[in-house]
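in:
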């Protein structure tokens, strides 16, 4: 039995300098379940071993353990594995994070960074990822965002949203806690003229409302709902009126706003301010880690001040630096306006850096997550240029789609040519050269072909060119002439020219490709494209990856990336 105990005793001594026999018992039993039958004698034996090892030097213990069980010597702390740095005070299974956008539109790439980080942390710790729509400001609410945001959250998190919460559904709870704050003497209803209050606050002086008795406060609180009008009264938290940061002095928690809210209509006119609703929600939803931009630093301080009034545990706050997306139009309000004016076709317009567009184009959320992980959770401000952003996202996306996407020929801006002497021949090509088991596609080789006008203009006379997988040819005085079928001959030719894709004149499919700038290219595609389903990503050979967006008489592809 001793041999089963000694290694753990040594490990304990080396790690902590002393030994807790009960802790050793746990380790011994876990590794030797058969000993569970007689726990008292195991414990007794442990105590003996503990006594016997008490005078060993560190070197002796290390040497013995090295012989007995070197793994215990090098045992690493249990680390949570993931693409991100571990979170402070995070425990597996207990992490709850959230994103909290206001309903102003779909999520853009800036939101996506934060949403991806939160979702990845939830995943890394087997925790929860909550999507919370913060709509307690009845002005500027965009109705469609109630559907768009949960969809985007679902996409970016790989369908791992634990809960969708809408704040305007929870007003009753905010009122209850607000009333408690009044009852506890932590909050008061201030009816001062806003300018007067601001002046007093700047001087560190309390306004007269602050010292009114509780009864009067309760009356005033009730009047917020049925007496005062907009602008007449606000609920304030009693903080330190001389706080070194003036923003922290008796800040507002709740106000009256007569705007009609699309969800609650005229029914509600008293609205919690963001910090109050956030403090209550983070507590109520059990949020353990608040990961958001550093523009929320002051808010976090205010939120914890509210939480302290109820003796609630604070979440861990970790902020990231500002990301400036240079040259990218990520304003929700502007985009919304342009959609309403039909300048854009919708949030999924190919030109937009919003998630519905990225998704429709064929980007994988995993590529966005990888990009977000690469930036990581850092406080440094950074500028991401448009080119840089797409370069990264495209590279990450290509890693994912390159093995998936089958290859096809599409000839844009086609011109017909005649290759004199070209043999009639069926040409079989792999759908994907790396995955031959996916099968083949075939094209009828013949003298009458289409090639793209762009290729045609670049074919130099006197050189040996090749039509992919079909034959070699030359151009002489504008005439195309068949030379041979042999690829080696082309490859080894001194006057090697271009290798281009082609289509036979005959039964082809009409193809359109929508480019990033929303312009449309037209051409023909090979017949095998008829078997491709809508939503499939393909590689148009020698061109780029594209997604089959709609399939009617014409196949409409959306450009993805090269
Ligand atoms: Zn006042």
């Amino acid at each position: 039995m001793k041999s089963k105990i000694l290694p753990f005793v040594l490990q304990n001594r080396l790690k902590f300098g002393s030994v807790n026999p009960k802790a050793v018992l746990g380790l011994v039993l876990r590794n030797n379940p058969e000993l569970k039958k007689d726990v008292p004698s195991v414990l007794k034996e442990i105590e003996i071993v503990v006594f016997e090892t008490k005078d060993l030097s560190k070197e002796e213990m290390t040497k013995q353990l090295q012989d007995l069980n070197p793994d215990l010597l090098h045992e690493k702390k249990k680390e949570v594995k993931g693409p991100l740095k571990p979170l402070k005070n995070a425990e597996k299974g207990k992490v709850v994070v959230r994103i909290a956008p206001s309903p102003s539109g779909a999520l853009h790439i800036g939101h996506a960074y934060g949403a991806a980080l939160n979702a990845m942390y939830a995943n890394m710790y087997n925790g929860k990822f909550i999507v919370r729509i913060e709509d307690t400001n009845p002005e500027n609410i965009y109705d469609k965002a109630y559907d768009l945001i949960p969809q985007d959250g679902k996409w970016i998190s790989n369908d791992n949203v634990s809960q969708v919460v809408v704040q305007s559904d929870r007003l009753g709870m905010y009122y209850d806690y607000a009333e408690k704050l009044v009852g506890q003497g932590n909050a008061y209803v201030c009816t001062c003229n806003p300018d007067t209050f601001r002046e007093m606050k700047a001087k560190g002086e309390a306004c007269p409302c602050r010292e009114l008795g509780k009864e009067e406060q309760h009356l005033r609180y009730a009047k917020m709902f049925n007496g005062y009008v907009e602008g007449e009264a606000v609920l304030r938290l009693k903080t330190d009126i001389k706080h070194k940061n003036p923003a922290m002095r008796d800040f507002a928690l709740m106000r009256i706003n007569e705007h009609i809210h699309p969800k609650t209509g005229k029914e509600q006119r008293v609205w919690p301010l963001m910090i109050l609703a956030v403090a209550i929600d983070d507590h109520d939803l059990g949020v353990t880690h608040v990961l958001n931009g550093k523009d929320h630093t002051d808010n976090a301080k205010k939120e914890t001040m509210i939480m302290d009034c109820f003796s609630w545990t604070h979440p861990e706050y970790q902020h990231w630096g500002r990301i400036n997306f240079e040259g990218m139009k990520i304003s929700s309000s502007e985009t919304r306006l342009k959609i309403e004016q039909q300048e854009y076709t919708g949030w999924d317009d190919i030109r937009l850096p919003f998630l519905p567009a990225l998704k429709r184009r064929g980007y994988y959320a995993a590529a966005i997550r990888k990009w977000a992980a690469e930036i990581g959770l850092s406080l440094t401000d950074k500028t991401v240029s448009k080119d840089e952003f797409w370069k990264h996202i495209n590279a990450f996306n290509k890693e994912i789609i390159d093995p998936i996407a089958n290859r096809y020929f599409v000839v844009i801006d086609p011109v017909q040519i005649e290759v004199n002497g070209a043999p009639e021949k069926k040409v079989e090509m792999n759908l994907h050269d790396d995955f031959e088991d996916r099968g083949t596609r075939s094209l009828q080789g013949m003298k009458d072909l289409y090639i793209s006008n762009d290729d045609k203009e670049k074919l130099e006379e006197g050189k040996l060119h090749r039509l992919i997988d079909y034959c070699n040819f030359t151009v002489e005085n504008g005439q195309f002439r068949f030379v041979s079928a042999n690829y080696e001959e082309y490859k080894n030719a001194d006057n090697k020219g271009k290798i281009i894709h082609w289509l036979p004149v005959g039964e082809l499919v009409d193809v359109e490709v929508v480019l990033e700038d929303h312009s449309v290219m037209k051409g023909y595609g090979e017949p095998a494209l008829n078997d491709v389903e809508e939503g499939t990503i393909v590689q148009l050979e020698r061109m780029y990856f594209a997604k089959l967006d709609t399939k009617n008489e014409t196949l409409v592809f959306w450009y993805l990336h090269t």
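note: The CA atoms of residues 105 and 144 lie 7 Å apart.
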